[in-house]
Amino acid sequence: MTFVVTETCIRCKYTDCVDVCPTDAFREGPNFLVIDPDDCIDCTLCVPECPVDAIYAEDDVPADQRGFISLNAELGKRWKPIIDKKPAPPDADDWAKAKDKRGELDRG
After folding, report:
1. pTM of the model
2. Is 85 helix (H, G, I), strand (E, B) or coil?
3. Phi/psi at 51 (nearest 5 deg)?
4. Which residue ranges are recorded for the region named Disordered (predicted)?
5. pLDDT by residue (tens digit) across 73-83?
6. Taking the CA atoms of the chain, what radius of gyration do you get in angstroms?
7. b vs e for 38-61, b when ≥16 Cβ sit within 10 Å of the residue's Cβ?
8. Given this structure, which CATH class describes domain 3-82?
9. Angle at 81 between CA 79 and CA 86, to 5 degrees
């Protein structure tokens, strides 16, 4: 099993989670983070670090977010690793409250 970043992260891109990942499994896109399932060791350390509750165990991903399982796998192979925390975008708090953000995803 692996962990999955879901829609809530789009345009928020808080990076608190990457600091605690022992395998550097996070990948960074223009406005979203994903977890490479091949590098994730199911340690759960990232889950409580996410301020917007965007990270789920694969088996617990809500039904309306299940497409993010394959999206994490796909983009995890294309995007570069992120291993250090970065400042969140200036409007991250505003986007954290937004719903239906899939159309905002920049696959870069």
Report:
1. 0.96
2. coil
3. -70, -10
4. 82-108
5. 999 999 999 99
6. 12
7. ebbeeeeebbebbebebbbebeeb
8. alpha beta
9. 110
